[in-house]
Design brief:
With 119 residues, the protein is mainly β. The protein has one helix and eight strands, in the order E-E-E-E-E-H-E-E-E.
């Protein structure tokens, strides 16, 4: 597995279904170190602590190997790191090869897979 990007954001107001809701999906790639804490990485935030964030869901990853699918599905090719709301953009790993309890070293952090990402 190769870490391509670390992405963070604070929650922002987003208009959906004719109303404004807080959303933490607007992640941007950062170049500096980020301390991974619970419920959120430093300088980051979660808008929905029931389904995202919290002690066992403080970070998520996205595999760039899925970009071809999303290009076809969305008819776009302007993807950027963090655009799917992930904290880590990675390559060289497949979801089918990962199980709950697996651990990964990211910088100085040891990260354990504890949940699938809710949809």
């Amino acid at each position: 597995m190769e870490l391509l990007s670390v992405n963070i954001s604070q929650p922002k107001r987003d208009r959906r279904a004719h109303r404004e809701v807080p959303a933490g999906i607007f992640k941007k790639s950062v170049k500096s170190s980020v301390m991974l804490r619970t419920p959120n990485p430093d300088r980051g935030g979660q808008a929905n602590l029931v389904n995202r964030g919290a002690i066992y869901r403080s970070a998520s990853a996205y595999l760039v190997g899925h970009d071809d699918y999303w290009r076809r599905e969305l008819g776009r090719d302007d993807f950027t790191f963090g655009q799917f709301g992930e904290n880590f953009t990675v390559k060289g790993m497949l979801e089918a090869d990962i199980i709950i309890g697996d651990t990964f070293r990211v910088g100085h952090a040891l990260i354990e897979v504890s949940h699938p990402r809710p949809s």
